[in-house]
Amino acid sequence: MGRLTWQRATVVGVLDETATARTLTLEVDTWSAHRPGQHVDVRLTAPDGYTAVRPYSIATPANGSRIDLTVGLTENGEVSGYLVGGTKIGTVLEVRGPLGGWFVWDRDDPAPVQLVGGGVGVAPLMAMLRAHDWVAERGPMGLLYSSRSPGTLLYATEFAGRMRCQDPTSAVTVLYTRTAPDGEPRLPGRLTTSDIGTYGLPPLSGTRCYVCGSTGFVEAAIELLIEAGFAADNIRAERFGP
Amino acid sequence: MTIYSAGFTGRPERGAGKSGVPPGQYVTREFPVLSAGPTPLIPLDTWRLEVTGDDGTARSWTWEEFRELDAEEVTVNLHCVTRWSKLGTAWTGVPVETLLADMEVDGVFVLASSYGGYTTNLPLVDLLDGKAWVVFEYEGRTIDPEHGGPARLLVPHLYLWKSAKWLRGLRLQARDEAGFWERLGYHNYGDPWREQRHWDD
User: Fold this and answer.
1) What is the pTM for the complete model shown?
2) CA A42 – CA B101 distance, rounded (Å)
3) CA nearest to A114, candidates A239, A38, A204
4) What's the gap in Å between the CA of A228 and the closest CA on chain B?
5) Is A144 near chain B, with CB under 8 Å?
6) Chain A hits for B41, Cβ within 8 Å
7) What is the four-CA torsion angle of A154, A156, A160, A163, rounded to 10 degrees?
8) pLDDT digit string (tens) for A154-208?
9) B38 and A226 in contact by Cβ < 8 A?
């Protein structure tokens, strides 16, 4: 059973993260362990045999035959519309994977890691952050997560817990672009170089950066990381859609 | 056994069956971006394009020299391995065979390399006879850096990762050598009509 064979995947958990994003927990018939950052292809088949396939990042580290996908609704999204609005416990889909060998974090890698996510682009970074939680001898990993408002924040409960912990090896900062919650010291706005300096890891020469989000976000974020002193060679990116 | 997803019908103008659209692709009017790292910004006064033969002889062009070569306008469909297809895109560029005209051509494979370190490999025949160009204009304007400007390879009959952005050089060689994505699990050839997406496809 190769990773390129389509596998039946049953929805065993549904969590509406926001009005336009849903996390699906899938139980996959045959699954080999994936690496944090990898993705799957999801295939939907209509009664007349029509199929549509789209790639989605896995938001959880390897956990037996279960994977979480966080899907953001896209405009006229043929597949995302169904996944966000038309699935329930017991819905059957098909997946194949794990796919992608570039945008991955290796849990044996002790180098410091700066994650930068925009919107639903935070999903594969969550797989890295959550995998990092289980590493005993770990280097620091920080996440800068750009979100429009508290209402669009994914994994809100988990982030609240993480921010309360103040674990210096695993620092999460949410940067709101349009509306910030009451009491938030930083004014809402797009990610800046000074945000990276204030809330990010120091730009050591060996620090790895993983950036994921819309094309515009990723282009801007990479430029800021380089400006802040991170090495371009150590920046890996995954860009979403148009 | 077919596995159906209950309630899924697909959108009305769904892509399959449209002419020009390979299996497993959907049509987009946007121009999405796929690349692995930072977008390099290449000043035109230091830009060079170099073609190297497998005997080590090389030929290179400055931007001005490159722009003096005869260029063609082509309108082609693009197919990305991430499943979008964009139809009827217009480009202006120099046919690859023009660049190879004075070369001693023994090798049958080509490794294309880019500013920023990206590489991709192709059989030489896939770059000849009006199948590939080094393009410098998209829809009549200079190509945006995130789409591969100042100049990129355009090989529209293969998946788009073969159309190296920010092209810096083409090296002819006797042996095939896997490029960046080809080493990371993507198909060595990448024919969208045969859905050659990954190693085992």
Assistant:
1) 0.78
2) 45
3) A204
4) 14
5) no
6) none
7) 10
8) 999 999 999 888 787 888 999 999 999 998 899 999 999 999 999 999 999 899 9
9) yes
